[in-house]
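$ fold --in a.seq
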Amino acid sequence: MKLLKASPLIGLIILLAASCKKPGSGTDNTYPKQVSITYRVSSTTTNNLVSITYDNETGGQTTADNPALPFTKNIIKTVNKYNIITLGYFANPAQTVKLEILVNNQVVKSQVYTSSNSSMSYTFQ
């Protein structure tokens, strides 16, 4: 009888242990951590943009004036949980522009805009 009462408890412990995330599986959520960030900007038109602004390695912002498209910028940066990075553009006249942010070669944010200026951000989780 004692064994029957202990069986559900043992089963629950085994189930909980099996559902726990194993170290090394999935993404590394420990912070601070060093990541590779790639900013990509492209357009369906051949016009250059007036400017592209992105967060740089030191936490400031860098503006590329009159960049040719497609535009790609790679940086290595140490980030903390909830840090935010941004990517934006200004075009004259308005055109279709695709913005992408990649972290460690994985697209984490991608958006297509049809206005003369816009921006997007990504928050590290």
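$ fold --in b.seq
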Amino acid sequence: MKAPERSIELTQVTEWNDGRDRTLQDSLATEEPLEIRVNGAALAVTMRTPGSDLELAAGFLLSEGIIQSQDQITSLRAVAPENGAKSNLVEAELKDAEFDRTELQRNFFAGSSCGICGKASINAIRVRGLRQPNRGFRVDPEILCRLPETLRSEQEVFSRTGGLHAAALFDASGQLIALREDIGRHNAVDKIAGWALLRGDLPLSRNVMLVSGRGGFEIAQKALAMGIPIMASVSAPSSLAVKLARELGLTLVGFLRGRRFIVYSGEFRCLRADEGKNLSIPPM
């Protein structure tokens, strides 16, 4: 996957290696603020890696429950300053979108590493009316085991910087459908959500999403907003993510590395009955 423009910055560094030092050029993952405005008013500021900004904004609006469909977006555009500087602003014009702007502004100032921490409540998700994902979708465990290597091989920016998270969408055969990178894992997921929303592909009822790093609550809620049946991560999920997955029927897989993974919820989608019978993870 080709790295998006502005996603990488070059800098000069000094390397020390086994008693010798040298000057060389290094690549850094870009981190810049993105402001999202809705109907002319500021809604959110998030630190992100430039690239796929319209997808990020659209996915953010979807995954946070501000909109439910592409039809509610009248226009979506990146706004460049008059002085010709790079754009760090996306403006959205929405219709039929009712929300408390004051409350949203209080909750939606997010750092690139923490996600949308102010709405970490299963009750808030329940009120939004998210439904259980497709119960008929299945993926073979052998295919799941191949996904992390595919993800790593396609991470262009990470391969040059070592400093980005990724979210990738796969079909039941393990075919890579879409991949987005960002300095914030929740931003990478929102870019996938926005990509699908703007293409009219929601719900993603026959797909697996794999994320780098941990599988936190905010990532699980975004997966559910997209209608994704199986969410996997290469690291651990959080306790709240597990509770949410079990309540709303999301298959949640963690520690997906090599030929091993842990299923925290919804094992019927990725294990045969005889394979899952020895699972002893207690309810939470």
